[in-house]
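Collaborator request log, item 7. Partner lab (contact: R.S.) asked for a structural prediction of Chorismate synthase to inform their binding assays.
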Amino acid sequence: MLRFLTAGESHGPALTAIIEGLPAGMPLDVAQVNGELARRQRGYGRGGRMQIERDQVEILSGVRFGVTIGSPVTLVIRNRDWENWRQRMDPVAGSDTQPVTAARPGHADLPGTIKYAREDIRDILERASARETAARVAVGAVAKQLLRAVGITVISHVTNIGGIWAAADEIRTGDVAAWASRLQSSALNCLDADAEERMKEAIERAGQEGDTLGGIFEIIAFGVFPGLGSHVHWDRRLDARLAGALMSIPAIKGVEVGAGFAYAALPGSQAHDEIFYEAERGYYRRSNNAGGMEGGISNGENIIIRAVMKPIPTLMRPLASVDIRTKQAAAAARERSDVCAVPAAAVVGEAVVAWVLAEALLEKFGGDAWGDLQAAIDYYRRRIR
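Returned to partner:
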């Protein structure tokens, strides 16, 4: 019922996203979308590209007077750097006297050129670039507005950069607005100020050495009610869909839900979340090792999911590689890049999690008209008490 496509290259004219299936009558605030795009561009350790771009979204269809009208919504983000690349990236005319032929280890460069039979790696790296995630952040910002209107908030925070761990337990409970406000003032989207300073020092050292750093971020969805997703088929399980969405982000190499790999050390008596009931509250748990999902279905607790981002594969001190034309040894190509983009990846993670939750919401309740969706959710909330 709800789907999207993105198009565009890193140094092409623009990134485009088309969203289909939004309910008609839903208010859509462009300023909030632009705010999410700005968050993606921030973060200690970002590279020169972020100094060029000032991502802003244009809405070309599907919205009238700030409200969706039921038709596909087209979002466009112009690439300001396009003017510097027009000759080398023009869709019709132009030429490139600097083809990329030395593949970067850890990037799509080599497998992409083999798969698509290209002789210039730029044909692959332009789309494989994490620049594409700007379009997904815009799409996710729209999904976030839908979710917030029914009481669901999605936020992220960084728990590890370069092996430096931050305290993380407190954010999983308490005042969502307070946590979000604190994170806004953090250069690394991290709640632990002491750990953040040590992370910054590690990023500085890596940059000076021509190296890069990865890390871990956590996504928490507050206010998710039980019943999203399903146990009946593998591809309808909410946890599987969320994990797949996070793994689709460039450089993400692992995902865990709730206690995740810590389950391996726990007996069943300590692993599972006991169930309680109160008339005003309904069913609830006093722990949340399951990360808000059981049997592929949301259980009413906060959804907690983490992802690990590998270090960025573009190094200023390149690794060994091979020239795809000559087959001779070569130093890997260098593209303008970040030292660390874990905070930006966390914002992208929020976007894809929000999108999957919005999908599951509309699958369960329908979504042709905004008022009908809200009425269906209101009835459901009364019923499950």
